[in-house]
Amino acid sequence: MSRTASLAVSGLLIAALTACSSGDAADRGADDLGTIEPGVLKVAIQPYAPYTDYQGGELTGLDSEILTAVAAKLNLKVEPEVTDFAGMLAGVQSRRVDITIGGVAWSADRQKQGLFTDPPYYSPPAMAVKSDKEYKTVSDLENLRLATVEGYVWVKSIQAVPGAKLQAYPDGNGVIDDLGAERADVGFLDPLIIIAAQKARPELAIKTQYLTPPSDADVQAKPAYEYFRSYMTSFYLPKEATALEQAISREIRAMYGNGELTGLVRKYGGDPEQFLKPPTHIAPLRRDVDRPSDWTPPSI
After folding, report:
1. What is the CATH superfamily name and number for domain 5-123+231-286?
2. Quick one: which of 25, 38, 65 has its CA closest to 49?
3. Minimal CA–CA distance to 49: which of 97, 102, 119, 89?
4. Which one-letter DSSP state was computed for residue 142?
5. What digits encode the pLDDT tens for the residues 278-290?
6. Is residue 58 packed enough to be buried (19+ CB in 10 Å), middle (13-18) or exposed (0-12)?
7. CATH 3.40.190.10 boundaries in the chain
8. pTM value > 0.70
9. What angle do CA 248, 254, 260 make, to 5 degrees?
10. 5: alpha, beta or left, given left = phi > 0 and alpha = psi -120 to 50?
């Protein structure tokens, strides 16, 4: 679930980057991108398969494969550092790493302390469901047992649903277990986590459904419903890394256009129509914040 003048990018640098094509960016040379170590892209991740993981000396997962493809085009060698989510953010904000990926949602507060790339995908409001019943709108969730992980953004959303019972668990396994045992009606987790659980535990007969997002009027009436809509995941960089951010964003946009992102999303079981087409509420969030007023989110 990004630049304005406040990011202090010189007009000369903007002009130079804008003049480069996707291929030209790599020709500039890795030294021009201002990484901590020339030619190396230091990335902080947490074990969060199938989005990010580090096994057998290799980065795996959707975000990892996107970054690896981008780095190759920019002539950068990826050097991973495994930590937790707090360590990921701290590493970027203190500039101990060049970038962090995987589960980092764009927010107005976070962008004040770092730079966000254009979104490599959008995280849709996915639900894990055991029964054959279809849940399409927030009103369909009223008076149900709604499960998620402690501390996740959906806790606030669930608490705002009339009559709903919040069931919060230490991790996603608890959500999946209780759905399978029919001790919960609906589970809210990141979509690829649900899809991976379906493949790993087919005997539970869990399926993925996508919630119809609440309208602007619904969110205005109940702000917590914001988390029942798609959010932007983006790669997060230090505030000083303007050249690197713009180069990575350019490559991300190229991957929307050439089909690479469509192929990667499908590889991990995602629906490109859900992951790679921005809902209408996305653009206004970043316009005149960390993007120009005419910014258009990337899309297939």
Report:
1. Periplasmic binding protein-like II (3.40.190.10)
2. 65
3. 102
4. T
5. 999 999 999 999 9
6. exposed
7. 5-123+231-286, 126-228
8. yes
9. 105
10. alpha
Q: Give the HSE-up count for residue 277: Cα atoms under 13 Å, Cβ half-sphere.
A: 4
Structure tokens at 43: 């990335």
The β-bridge partners of 123 are 231
Tokens standing for 54? Answer: 């580090």
- Bridge partners for 166 per DSSP: 146
Sheet hosting strand 165-169, strand order edge to edge: 165-169, 145-149, 186-188, 126-129, 207-210
Q: Mind listing the pLDDT tens digit for each residue in 226-237?
A: 989 999 999 999
Angle between helices 242-258 and 11-19 (to 10 degrees): 30
The pair of three-digit structure tokens given for residue 32, joined into one six-digit string: 């021009």
Which superfamily does 126-228 belong to? Periplasmic binding protein-like II (3.40.190.10)
